[in-house]
Amino acid sequence: MHIAVGGNIGAGKTTLTELLSKHYGWQTHYEDVDTNPYLLDFYDDMQRWAFNLQVYYLNSRFTQIQEIKESTKTIIQDRTIYEDAFIFAPNLHSMGLMTTRDFENYFSLFNLMESFISAPDLLIYLRASVPKLVQNIQKRGREYEESIRIDYLKRLNERYEAWISTYDKGRVLIIDIDDNSFNENPEDLGKIIQMIDAELHGLF
Question: How many domains, in total, are found in the chain?
Answer without folding.
Answer: 1
